[in-house]
Amino acid sequence: MPTRLPLLPFLLFHLISPSFTLPPAPPIHCNSTAGRCTISNAFGPWNDRHPCLVPSVVYPSTEEELLATVASARRLNLKVKVVSGFSHTIPKLVCPPPTGSLLISTARYNSGVAIDPARRTVTVDAGTGLRDIVDAVEEAGFSLLAAPYWEGVSIAGLISTGSHGSSWWGKGGAVHEHVVAMRLVVPAEADEGFAKVVEIDGSTPELLNAARVSIGLLGVISKVTLSLEPKFKRSITYDYLTDEKLLDEFEEMTKQHEFFDIDWYPSQGLAVYRLDDRAPWNSSGDGVNDFIGFQANPSLTSMAVRATEKALEESKSVKGKCAMAATVLAAKKLAAIGLKNNNFIFTGYPVIGSQSKMQTSGSCLHSSSSNPLAMCSWDPRIKGLFFYETTAIFPASNFRNFVLDVKKLRDLNPQNFCGVDIYNGFLIRFIKASSAYLGQAEDSVVVDFNYYRADEALTPRLNQDVWEEVEQMAFFKHGARPHWGKNRKVAFFGVQEKYPDQMRKFNAVKQMLDPTGMFSSEWSDEVLLGMRAGKTDGCALEGLCICSKDMHCSPSNGYFCKSGLVYGEAKVCRFLNSSMP
After folding, report:
1. Rg, Å, the chain Cα set
2. Average pLDDT of the chain?
3. Is 398:479 a contact under the CB 8 Å cutoff?
4. pTM higher than 0.90 for the full model?
5. Domain 113-230, what fold?
């Protein structure tokens, strides 16, 4: 699930979203001529590049229909996977086996939003979108405290993958920490009708701790109940500083500002502090957070930007990448990263607006016309942005040493980091310790970074070795855990060892609710079990393996398997031209 997706480097002209937006295509695509259906995520890397076949798909709209669907699948011994109407998860968690399986879409199971004012809770259908929830609770006089920055997700999908905002206050920024009850449809014996609804709440803590973050392996989430707070506003100011004091200041800043985060741009030596706090409902201001990266962009612009970056990659122009990064940062600063004081334009800090308008964004999702003038810039229907997203979750005590290592690598040649700064640099957020078995056992720091992905899997990238070394530093040297809804396959290697007691408890509940493995697949096993496949030519280029031989890179293009420059145990694909040893 994206947090802050790449910014277009020529956004100086784009301070107001286009009027006509083409919404994303549905994730399930059926071809009547070919007689088959496929599923992809919203970024497109499963379709032509990595097809995911769908033998059969159903669209329940009620819990009764959902129950009947699971019962039928159990009766026929089918494997089951569930997808929302959005499908922004990067790993192939929703991909069913190509035969003997069923895909359930919750795209039409999204009409129920029931608010209980006395208990300060809201209960919603699994497929309900985040935007619909935050708007509904605010209209009723409440606010949902935590939300991911991207609103194009369903409630079941976002809690299943541990999606979050940023906060070390109270219960913290992870949405699953605000889940108080759930209803889950699971397989059952014949005398129970082959399927049943399990009610989960605080009276069944072991079930709740497993179900709150489950990556779809326990059953089909039917309904989710979240705690609410009286409605409030947010006040946001972006402060641009050098990165010299980042490690000395971040903990104190998390104590001063409830929703604090940092955008760190290593090549620029820049740290952008988000000074983000709640404000009383009667505070003056009708601001909105319309993050630039989530605005609709003219398709020709997105295509031109992709073509430009692709050309810089092919010519190995590090200086060109740095020029793009400087343009991006200038545009972001001018447009306040998409904040608008009056829902129209930025006029000055602080920007104050209601929680529903400030906590999450995604205006490129919403259509006001069928005219395809503009769309999300990563939409696979155009040759627009295509990227990786790595998200590492560090115990707070490990974060400092990770940053110090990244700075050492950066200082060898700061220009090598311009590629990530074209996007969003390192987005640093904060989440509280969780009792969820697949959550974080301690207060944690989450680091996201996006970077260029080649059109073809076997095409190496400029500074390939840098991003592989940073990735391996994070997950293997400094003990980071992967975000369940993001990352390349390599990030999940050895993940079971990072959840020793929690994984045992999760697997015990999984065995209880789904003893036949109805909701498991080879792709979910790759994530949950960290399974490694055999190494093949070029497997390291897409993060399918860690290289141990040159053939795992691309020796024909000058990329060879070498040790890391700072983290010596890393094995990375490094470009060596004829003048290098």
Report:
1. 23
2. 92
3. yes
4. yes
5. 3.30.465
